[in-house]
Amino acid sequence: MRKKQAAWLWPPLGLALLAVCGLVGVAAGAADIGPADIAAALLGHLPFVPLSSPLSGLQEAVLVELRLPRVVLGALVGGLLASSGAAYQGVFRNPLADPYLLGAAGGAGLGATLVLAFGTQVLDSPQAVVPVAAFAGALVGVGAAYGLGTVAGGSGTTTLVLAGVAVSSFLSAAQNLVQMLRTEELRRIYAWMMGGLGNGGWDDVAMIAPYAALSVVVLMGCGYLLDLLALGDEKALSLGLNATGARLLVISAASLATAAAVSVSGLIGFVGIVVPHIVRRLVGTGYRMILPMSLLSGAAFLVLVDVAARTVISPAELPLGVVTAFVGAPFFVFILRTTRSRGT
Length: 344
Fold this sequence. Notes:
Blueprint: H1 2-7, H2 10-27, H3 35-44, H4 57-92, H5 104-118, H6 130-151, H7 157-181, H8 186-193, H9 202-220, H10 223-229, H11 233-238, H12 243-265, H13 271-283, H14 287-311, H15 320-341
Helix pairs in contact: 2-4, 2-14, 4-9, 4-12, 4-13, 4-14, 5-6, 5-7, 5-8, 5-12, 6-7, 6-12, 9-12, 10-14, 13-14
Membrane topology: Multi-pass membrane protein
Protein name: ABC transporter permease
Main location: membrane
């Protein structure tokens, strides 16, 4: 009983960690703005709070229009990728599953590549359409994997994974073909594929907010289902759970979360693998705790990684996907060694 009571201390700790990381994120930058001034300025924007901002007009603009939306967007993307990664690992019972498993990344990459390669011929500002095209492409990729998996003979985890691999390979080949046909746009295409939040603003936050809210609400309610699925389909069925329907619900919500994140950030790998594994070692194997803690920890993690990306070689900026790869690749090797040592 004492252990269960202590376990529920994790979400408040996760919220506190996210708040601290968010404060670090909005404080980092060329314009020197102290944490106390930031807190006072943000509180001053709340209704019924009688505080005036201590910042100058320029500092206020930097905080509200540049840093704050970037931090909010980073928290959204990190939380979505980490929680969907935890959901994929639970539903597939595979520690190496990640948010890009079912063709979401391949579809998003192809959608963005098509707009960047050919959008200049029909659009005044093709860059503004990239998130929408990436979002649509991610959903098409996931839908194609579902369809292929169903046609191939079922809804089991192995069938869906193989279908996702096949769809991802096809979409990647199509993307490479487009790049070959439009070599003059390669720089912009690769810049998007490496991932980043530098161009993110409140419009991007507003665009993905409904999809993020829907997917997060569903995923947070699926912890019990994932705990039952971890027992095996036969045991879950004996407890009254429709394993196929539960799996479809979880995968759909995780894929929607992935599509929303990729549409505004580009391809950012390893967040969905690294964060859930760290969380699982801290809070245990119950998904009713893993999912919310992955959401909070993923948000805090990506905010800090973004701070590193924009400060390590300041005034230049590292692609966010490169920084997460530096962190995630060694961790991925560690997971492989651990899995092998357990004989799984």
